[in-house]
Specification:
Brnchd-chn_aa_trnsp_permease
Length: 236
């Protein structure tokens, strides 16, 4: 088998193995688009936002804060805080991209989202156990291709038809995306101790959401989780 044939097979394997996550991703993308359309976002604005900022959580925050006049600095700050997790995710992925040329490494990081990052690291562990080179770029590209295209296409479609729908939150699809994250968490579970920063972040964010108006629960949850992770690493 030639290298091109092997890369093509790995690409399609990545797309195939990520396909089950579309059960949660597709309706959530539609909900994002519909909510954006009901807030006055055009399909083009939704296409540009999802295409340039491939991170679902911050996009939902931006849509929820969308108003006229637009609170640009608030949206930018909340987006940065939510997306700050990508700094740690990128740092975890960076050792396996060290020998890769920038023309390949930078696109790999651009298309990195929670799902592709988790599947990429799972593939790294699998290949290390087999004694193969760690990072499987064709597999990772297949994962990113199916997730990225599905997300932007259905979010854009949702924005185009959004004004035709009522309260989409009442449909119950909101549980689909958290279910995907629970599956990813199960695959990466290393014990309660390693998950402590996530738990603290969740509890602080939930408490802040109940007690403080606005979007302050976002930085509160992010900073508390980072603080716990920092002090735990320093105590070892």
């Amino acid at each position: 088998m030639t290298e091109n044939e092997s890369s093509r097979l790995e690409f399609f394997r990545g797309a195939r193995e990520s396909a089950p996550m579309l059960i949660g991703l597709l309706p959530f993308a539609m909900i994002l688009g519909v909510q954006g359309g009901q807030k006055g976002m055009s399909w083009l604005e939704m296409l540009l936002m999802t295409g340039m900022n491939f991170a679902g959580g911050s996009e939902f925050a931006a849509v929820n804060l969308w108003a006229h006049p637009q609170p640009i600095w608030l949206i930018a700050t909340v987006t940065f805080m939510i997306n700050s997790r990508h700094i740690l995710m990128g740092a975890a992925l960076a050792p396996f991209l060290r020998d890769m040329p920038l023309k390949k490494a930078l696109p790999a990081l651009f298309f990195m989202c929670d799902e592709s990052w988790a599947m990429g690291l799972a593939e790294v562990r699998r290949r290390q156990a087999l004694g193969l080179p760690s990072f499987n770029l064709p597999f990772y590209a297949g994962v990113c291709a199916i997730l990225y295209s599905t997300w932007i296409v259905f979010a854009t479609l949702g924005a185009a038809v959004g004004p035709l729908f009522g309260d989409v939150a009442a449909w119950g699809f909101g549980m689909a995306f958290p279910a995907v994250f629970l599956v990813l968490l199960r695959g990466m579970w290393k014990g309660f101790s390693a998950a402590l920063p996530w738990l603290v972040s969740l509890l602080v964010a939930a408490l802040t959401y109940r007690l403080a108006p606005g979007a302050w629960y976002v930085p509160a949850g992010a900073l508390s989780g980072l603080a716990v992770a920092y002090f735990r690493s320093g105590s070892k």
